[in-house]
Design brief:
Blueprint (H helix, E strand, L loop, with lengths): L1 H23 L2 E2 H8 L3 H13 L3 E8 L5 E7 L5 E7 L3 E8 L4 E8 L4 H14 L5 E6 L2 E3 L4 E5 L4 E5 H4 L6 E5 H12 L9 E6 L3 E7 L2 E3 L31 H4 L2 H7 L9 H9 L5 H22 L3 E6 L6 H14 L2 H4 L3 E4 L6 H15 L5
Parallel strand pairs: 4-7, 7-11, 12-15, 15-16
Antiparallel strand pairs: 1-3, 2-3, 4-5, 5-6, 8-9, 9-10, 12-13, 13-14
Helix pairs in contact: 1-3, 2-3, 6-13, 8-9, 10-11
The structure holds zinc ion (ZN).
Zinc ion binds next to loops.
Length: 376
């Protein structure tokens, strides 16, 4: 019993040291001791074990002010490799993510219409990459992380898809909704948000979804549907049905389809909806339409702000193309519509994340869940 207790404490300390090195990127033994409150002797012993097991490498020597060099520790990029997928409505991007948080995009393919064809493609990719520690996937819809089931992806019309049935592999699989991964990634990577406890990440793409970070954790809800703000009703008189079956959903007014449809898709250059949207926002004659579109986006955000009172709303997806003036206009519109008290300290910002936030979130999810055994 004593031995087991000692063993588990040692294991916990080792994980704590490893997590500290992972989060810091580069850190000295002395700093680890200060951060973790573990004694310098314990830290040195744990670091030695972690280096022997290939998780940690000594990074570089920096001359200190006293003229002595110091040795920094860093995560070993070779320690953990994750095959990452960002499943988009139009294209799926895949990449390799490593323990040093680096991500190398391998390629992308057109997202097949059916889960069967999609997972066949995943199998083929997996066969070419034998040394993978985990597979982590971002989906633009509802994903049940407990049952490994894609509950519903409206734009692809995938319902109740059992991942274990389609993807037969011994490699651990992780999956989450794209907006959940984006908020998780942003909080982790953005140094301005180190003390943020509540944030809403709004993904504006072909669909609209939100990732909720509440009381310092991603909030997914008991059946993993939390944050589906795109399917809240903002219009009573709408005759056309949304893909979800409801009428007058926010998504139909705030997704990139709305301004493209209003302007006329045939009048816009580009093969995909994304390309057409990019053409549209550059057009001077679309200014009034874009103003209306901004209002549509702001209405939904004001509703979310009244319900959740977040510290910050992060705009991502195609909203990354919005200039500072547009962000200011959204902020003004939201403040006019939402309760004064709910917006007093509210910040509305563009995501600062460089690169693909869904892939980054998927990498973090795999490392935290599979390696650190943390529920994110
Ligand atoms: Zn809907």
């Amino acid at each position: 019993m004593k031995r087991l207790h000692h063993g588990s404490l040692r294991e916990n300390n080792r994980l704590l040291v490893l997590k500290t090195i992972f989060e810091a990127g580069e850190v000295s033994r002395t700093e680890i001791s200060q951060i973790t409150n573990l004694s310098p002797t314990t830290v040195s012993r744990m670091v030695k074990e972690l280096m022997e097991r290939g998780f940690v490498v000594e990074s570089k020597k920096e001359a200190s002010s006293l003229g002595r060099s110091r040795i920094l520790l860093a995560p070993n990029s070779k320690a953990y490799k994750v095959l990452l997928f960002d499943v988009g409505v139009t294209f799926t991007t895949y990449a390799i993510g490593k323990f040093d948080k680096s991500i190398k995009i391998l390629s992308r393919f057109k997202t097949p219409d059916t889960p069967d064809l999609f997972f066949k493609k995943v199998h083929k990719i997996l066969e070419t990459l034998p040394e993978i520690d985990a597979i982590s996937m971002s989906f633009p819809g509802m994903v049940n992380m407990n049952t490994f089931e894609i509950s519903y992806v409206p734009y692809l019309d995938w319902r109740k898809v059992s991942i274990k049935k389609f993807l037969r592999t011994d490699t651990p699989i992780l999956m989450d909704n794209e907006a959940n991964l984006a908020v998780f990634g942003e909080i982790h990577a953005n140094s301005d948000m180190k003390t943020t406890l509540s944030a809403v990440y709004v993904v504006i793409r072909e669909g609209v979804g939100t990732g909720l970070y509440l009381n310092g954790k991603v909030y997914r809800g008991p059946s993993f549907t939390a944050g589906e703000a795109g399917h809240t009703t903002i219009e009573f008189s709408e005759s056309e049905k949304c893909r979800c079956g409801n009428r007058g959903c926010w998504e139909n007014y705030a997704s990139i389809y709305w301004p493209v449809r209003k302007f006329g898709p045939d009048k816009l250059a580009g093969d995909t909806i994304l390309e057409k949207f990019h053409t549209l926002i550059e057009k001077p004659e679309a200014k009034k339409l874009i103003n209306d579109y901004i209002k549509n986006i702001s209405v939904g955000i004001a509703n979310i702000v009244n319900i959740l009172n977040p510290e910050v709303v992060i705009l991502g997806g195609e909203a990354l193309n919005f200039d500072d003036e547009t962000i200011k206009r959204i902020t003004k519109e939201v403040k006019q519509r939402a309760l004064f008290e709910a917006t007093e300290s509210l910040k509305i910002v563009r995501s600062t994340f460089k690169g693909n936030p869904y892939l980054y979130g998927a990498l973090l999810l795999a490392i935290e869940k599979n390696l650190f055994h943390i529920t994110t």
